[in-house]
Structures are given as structure tokens and as C-alpha cells.
Design goal:
This protein is an alpha+beta fold. The chain is built from four helices and 14 strands. Strands 1, 2, 5, 6 and 9 form a five-stranded antiparallel beta sheet that branches. Strand 10 and strand 11 form a beta hairpin.
Length: about 170
């Protein structure tokens, strides 16, 4: 009876292409991804859009979903060579071998990022507050402003203002 290969077997053989995780210096993920692509290495940096506030404006920027992590698809034996790329600190290990991320997990993360990009909140949408003192309370969006949403909370019979990053859209069936 043949036994399924374990992570350690895959690492020892080093011949199959798998997704691995590289840990980068802080805030260097985009530059590391660019350098890896220049070297011809298949890599992926999941980015999400978020509102960032400066003293004079609010701007939508793309930030990494996972701070200081970049996914690479390669053979295990090629990982050591990537440590020479500026900005790469180390390979992420699990149980003594480089951590392998399954293709299904990468697919789920891609789906999550895609959903986050297409999810926009508009007047009339029903949302749920996900943090703060109103956590788990749902309401209807009455108005969308640059820095906040005006919600009508039917359970409380009140109208409140909340930041857009503190709510999630409720999918209606």
C-alpha cells in the first residue's frame, strides 16, 4: 500500500512546484514582489484597497492583505536562492520544513481578495457593524460620505455615523 507523500518528503525531493511563503522586511512587500518577478520567479502579493487618512485628505490605497508576506511558487530547492533578494528576510517554516500553502488555499485567498475589491457600499445597502460598541448590530445605509456612513439602526430606532471600515455588507438572499 503506497503512502501519500508528506510535507517533509516533498521538501526532501524538492522537485514539485509548490506555493511557499517568504517573510519580508516591514513595508517592503511590493518591492520584493517586483524583484522576484524580475528574476522570473512566479509570485503573488495579495493586495486589498483601504482608505488611509492624512492630515489633509483621505485616499484609497492598496495594502498587502498579510503584512510582510509574499507567496512564491517554486521548488523547495530554489528557496535558498531567494534569500539573496533584497528585502527577503527568511522563508516561513512549519514543523522544521518550509511551509507549503496548498493550491486550494491560494485559490480561496484569491477569491477573498476579488470579493473585497468588488464590494462597495451604497445607500440602501444593509450592513453589520463588526467592531466597537455597536458590534453585531445591523442597519440600513442612509447616506455615504467620504469619511463615514450614516446608518439607520432599526433595532435601536436610531441614526448613527460609522467609519466604512467598521462595517461589512450583508449578503441578501
Amino acid at each position: 500500500m503506497d503512502k501519500a507523500p508528506t510535507r517533509k518528503d516533498v521538501h526532501r525531493e524538492g522537485c514539485s512546484m509548490c506555493w511557499y511563503v517568504l517573510y519580508t522586511t516591514p513595508r517592503a512587500e511590493k518591492r520584493v514582489e517586483e524583484r522576484l518577478k524580475r528574476e522570473g520567479i512566479e509570485c503573488w502579493l495579495p493586495l486589498v484597497k483601504t482608505a488611509r487618512r492624512w492630515s489633509d485628505r483621505v485616499k484609497i490605497v492598496e495594502v498587502p492583505l498579510f503584512n510582510s508576506y509574499v507567496f512564491v511558487r517554486c521548488r523547495a530547492v530554489e528557496l535558498r536562492g531567494m534569500l539573496g533578494i533584497v528585502g527577503v528576510v527568511r522563508t516561513v517554516y512549519y514543523d522544521g520544513v518550509p511551509a507549503v500553502v496548498r493550491d486550494e488555499e491560494i485559490g480561496e485567498i484569491r477569491k477573498l481578495v476579488e470579493e473585497a475589491d468588488t464590494c462597495t457600499i451604497e445607500s440602501g445597502d444593509v450592513v453589520e457593524v463588526v467592531c466597537g460598541s455597536l458590534k453585531m448590530v445591523s442597519g440600513k445605509v442612509m447616506r455615504v460620505k467620504k469619511r463615514y456612513l450614516v446608518l439607520y439602526l432599526e433595532q435601536l430606532g436610531a441614526t448613527v455615523c460609522v467609519r466604512p471600515d467598521t462595517v461589512k455588507k450583508i449578503k441578501e438572499s
